[in-house]
Amino acid sequence: MKLSLPAQSILLPSPVLIIGTYGSDGRPNIMTAAWGGITSSKPPCISVSLREATLSYHNIKETKAFTVNIPSEKYYKEADYIGMVSGREHDKFKETGLTPEKSKQVNAPFVKEFPYALECKLKKQVDLGMHTMFIGEIAGMVADNNVLNPKQLPDIEKVRPILWGSFGSMGYYNIGDKLGDAFSVGNELQRSKNKKSV
Amino acid sequence: MKLSLPAQSILLPSPVLIIGTYGSDGRPNIMTAAWGGITSSKPPCISVSLREATLSYHNIKETKAFTVNIPSEKYYKEADYIGMVSGREHDKFKETGLTPEKSKQVNAPFVKEFPYALECKLKKQVDLGMHTMFIGEIAGMVADNNVLNPKQLPDIEKVRPILWGSFGSMGYYNIGDKLGDAFSVGNELQRSKNKKSV
């Protein structure tokens, strides 16, 4: 039975994004965000939406830069903690034992222990209400060599990212099994439909 | 070893979004998109980025509305097919055997067979280059009653959404195991750090 329900900002799955920034005093900070996604291929862009109450919001406004770090599943407790406390009162790098490294592409730190990060220059800001969307142009990427495929692209089976189940479960998940190849398995459907119509 | 690599629009995981629209002639269409994400909580908003070459781009410009449908994993072949052909030459509902139902909230169809959909009114359009980002304000949600938790929210373990592994794997995946509870497991880290420092 299909139900009509109130509006909810529930996308499944939602990503777990660790946003790296510097303050105007050069202090590195990280926060966890789930509101974001790729917004363009050329130029490559990604958006992340933050509340004005966060330190990261003000850091991005000042430095015009941020990194989007993808934690592997073994860091799910760190990812949760980084989303629970504010960089105003906590040194989250120190408290989690994670290491900030300065990006060579943009004025922001990335997390050394995480498998890869996108290095972003602020391109546009869109105020939407409770959240402000920061659209970053991806200037480069840093990645551990052991999570790359032969084309030097991050392989999801090696990165082992975390998913967030949003408000309906409030849980973190890992990836499961491969279902099939994109731009390929759809052909099987077409063939089976054609067979039926013969 | 950490490598510096060229910019890539690779977010892991990326969602599999089936975008539902009507043409100016009232014909329902669906397309598959991976560039999108939640952009705000209040008002609840979601963005999806489309190329001008797509029929859906023009449908959204005309109707100012779209749905974001989340397919369950058993529909991975359908999701792939819907992303492989254009609604200009194909009736993708008919060819996949999926059923369009008119949203009561917005001027767009949702996919009856999929576990839930967000019903969106176009709020803002941001041109970014190859892709245009359409930000929709979520006006309502339709969901199968058997994928909801007791609070009437879609439960990821019942929805069983599809993930896309992006360019590094070009594969579809399902969700795996629950790692832990959000806004909770981070406390364990804090306790263990505190213990160490005693």
Describe it for me?
Chain A contains 5 helices and 13 strands. By secondary structure, chain A is α+β, with helices and mostly antiparallel strands. In chain A, a hairpin with a 6-residue loop joins strand 12 and strand 13. The radius of gyration of chain A is 19 Å and the shape is globular. Chains A and B meet through strand 1, strand 2, strand 5, strand 6 and helix 2 of A and strand 1, strand 2, strand 5, strand 6 and helix 2 of B. Strand 11 of chain A pairs antiparallel with strand 1 of chain B.
Radius of gyration of chain A: 19 Å
Q: Provide the structure class of chain A.
A: alpha+beta
In the sheet with the most strands of chain A, the strands line up as 4-3-7-10-11-6-5
Can you count the beta strands of chain A? Answer: 13
General shape of chain A:
globular
The oligomeric state of the chains shown is homodimer
- Which two chains form the greatest contact, residue counts included? A-B, 112 and 112 residues
List segments of chain A where confidence is low: pLDDT < 50 over at least 5 consecutive residues.
none
Number of helices of chain A: 5
Quote the beta fraction of chain A. Answer: 35-45%
Largest sheet of chain A: 7 strands, antiparallel
Written as H for each helix and E for each strand, in order along the chain, the element string of chain A is EEEEEEHEHHEEEEHEEH
Distance between the termini of chain A: 34 Å
Mean pLDDT over the full residue set of chain A = 96
Helix content of chain A: 10-25%
Task: Supply the key terms.
homodimer; 198 residues; alpha+beta; 7-stranded antiparallel β-sheet; 3-stranded antiparallel β-sheet; 13 strands; 41% strand
